[in-house]
Amino acid sequence: MTLSELVEQWYALHRRLAAVNSSTENKRLDNGDWYDTIGDKAVEMLEELQRFCGHSDELDLLIDEVSRGCEPAQGLPTRDQLRGLKELDPNPDGPVLPKGWRHAGHVYTNIEPRPSKLVSFLWKLSDRSAEWDDLAEPVWGDRAATLKEGQAVESACRKANKFFRDNKIPWKVSYAAAPDYTVTLKKTV
């Protein structure tokens, strides 16, 4: 199914939901079962939209409200609003698991495991920044690890940056020791 086909299906579902909402008799006759079925279908379609277009706060909230059977606070999106959505690139730049990085359509796999885990973890964060202690479990696999000594973090950052430089990938990992103890992934263009 394409995004445009999904938008048209959403429009048909949106019209059915509007008809149910305007007809109290339909709601009363079937005790809301028909509305629940359409609501379930709406959640499925919204989740499919999410697969096409990625997560957004608005879409996440809408899915949550519709799945709980609530009337969405912002109302359901219209066909015209959905037509403005853009499909995600099916092969976006960024981490490729288990250890690699996609850039400009090419996958580079010459990154070591620890730096790969580090950049993958940072990539998932909205600000692509974390405190050193937050790296212990996802990067080192040890929730109790204390990384304040910095050598392990600095080494992983240096290796990640060497990987980016060697492959001409415009990203860089920077780190700050005391007092901040943070690591940040930034585009370097």
Please describe what this structure looks like.
The chain is an alpha+beta fold. The chain has 2 domains: 3-83, no CATH class; 94-187, Orthogonal Bundle (Arc Repressor Mutant, subunit A), CATH 1.10.10.10. The protein has 8 helices and 6 strands; from the N terminus they run H-H-H-H-H-E-E-E-H-E-H-H-E-E. Strands 1-2-3 form a 3-stranded antiparallel beta sheet, covered by helices on one side. Helix 3 packs antiparallel against helix 4. The radius of gyration is 23 Å and the shape is elongated. The protein starts with a helix and ends with a strand. The model is unreliable at 24-32 (pLDDT under 50).
Give the SSE map.
Elements: H1 3-22, H2 24-29, H3 33-53, H4 57-67, H5 79-83, E1 94-96, E2 100-103, E3 106-108, H6 113-124, E4 129-131, H7 136-140, H8 151-166, E5 171-176, E6 182-187
Antiparallel strand pairs: 1-2, 2-3, 4-6, 5-6
Helix pairs in contact: 1-3, 3-4, 6-8
In a few lines, what is going on in this structure?
The chain has 189 residues and is an alpha+beta fold. The protein has helices spanning 3-22, 24-29, 33-53, 57-67, 79-83, 113-124, 136-140, 151-166; strands spanning 94-96, 100-103, 106-108, 129-131, 171-176, 182-187.
CATH level 4 superfamily of the largest domain: Winged helix-like DNA-binding domain superfamily/Winged helix DNA-binding domain
Give me the Rg, rounded: 23 Å
What is the CATH fold-level name of the largest domain? Arc Repressor Mutant, subunit A
Mean pLDDT rating? 75
CATH architecture of the largest domain: Orthogonal Bundle
Largest sheet: 3 strands, antiparallel
**SSE run:** HHHHHEEEHEHHEE
Q: What sort of overall outline do the alpha carbons produce when their principal axes are compared?
A: elongated
How many domain regions? 2
**Count of individual helical segments:** 8
Class from helix and strand fractions: alpha+beta
CATH class label of the largest domain: Mainly Alpha
**How many beta-strand segments?**
6
Secondary structure: helix percent = 40-55%
| Side-by-side strand order of the widest sheet | 1-2-3
Low-pLDDT segments, ≥5 res: 24-32
The span between the termini is 36 Å
Strand content: 5-15%
